[in-house]
Amino acid sequence: MTKLADAIQAARVASTSPPNPAHARDAVLTILAAAAEDERVIANLKDVPAGRALLRFTDTQEAIEFQAGDGRLYAEAADIKGKGPKVDATGATWLGLVAGTLKPWLAFTRGMVVARAGLTELRWLQQVAERLQQAYER
After folding, report:
1. Where are the domains of the chain?
2. Nearest C-alpha neighbor of 88 from the set 103, 108, 106, 102
3. Which of 45, 65, 93, 116 could form a disulfide with 86 if both were Cys (CB 3.0 to 4.6 A apart)?
């Protein structure tokens, strides 16, 4: 198994019970860091326009500075009032999106993810989430 597969599997096992909100951001960061090193993920993001967002965890008041597109992926812990377009969701929602247990169309059409900046960022983030999950299936 690859580092990415290990991280995804660990998140999926953890999702069989309600996630501990205090650990959700760390799990999301672990998956995104492993995804950034995976050739399948990078290849799947090559034709996605580059963008950035501040992924805010509404249940723990934490955030991740997230950048993706044009064949790159970057994520690091950030201040909740950091720079960039702000996108809010619970830790369980972010974890489900990056681990592949929550389909992006469901999360984005049902209001589980709220973009404070606007629809452009929301559409971009949905596309990135879909591409991440497609890469996992390869």
Report:
1. 3-137
2. 108
3. 116
Q: 3-state SS string over 40-105?
A: HHHHHCCCCCCEEEEEEECCCCEEEEEEEECCEEEEEEECCCCCCCEEEECHHHHHHHHHCCCCHH
> What is the tens place of the pLDDT at every residue in 42-69?
999 999 999 999 999 999 999 999 999 9
Q: What CATH superfamily is the domain 3-137?
A: SCP2 sterol-binding domain (3.30.1050.10)
* 49: Cα within 13 Å, side-chain hemisphere: 8
Tally of CA atoms within 13 A in the half-sphere of 2 that contains its CB? 16
